[in-house]
Amino acid sequence: MIVKLIRKEFTEQSTIGEVFINGKFLCYSLEDKDRGLKDSDPIELIALNKVYAKTSIPYGTYQCLFSMSNRFQRVLPEITNVKGFKGVRIHSGNTALDSEGCILLGISKQKDFIGESRTALSNFFLKVAPAKRFVLEITKI
Fold first, then answer.
1. CA–CA separation, 106 vs 83, rounded Å?
2. pTM for the full model?
3. Backbone angles phi and psi of 19, in degrees to 5
4. Which of 38, 73, 76, 130 is 20 to 30 A (C-alpha) from 102?
């Protein structure tokens, strides 16, 4: 299964995108500020440009699985092998303050905000959880 996140709206606080599952639109995403990092960048460049808890993960393709989150005390999608980042997940939340490098999902969007996040996360689980693992491709328009 392939989940594609296309980043489309960029501000000083956040990055809003669209999430597609096997080519079909599912919901919006909100992440921290896009600093133009790519998974192909050397770790030194990522470390130099990353601002802790205020930087979206690098553009690239990642393997994801479902695992227990100590922070949220529930099973959530985990994005693995993100260069320069640890514990990156997909979860609910509304603004970049809820993110810390993670990807938030929402049904509605405004500048620097997504709404109905728990509903979006539930819909995401219904579509993706049966596969147990998935590939996440992060690009921009």
1. 25
2. 0.96
3. -110, 130
4. 130
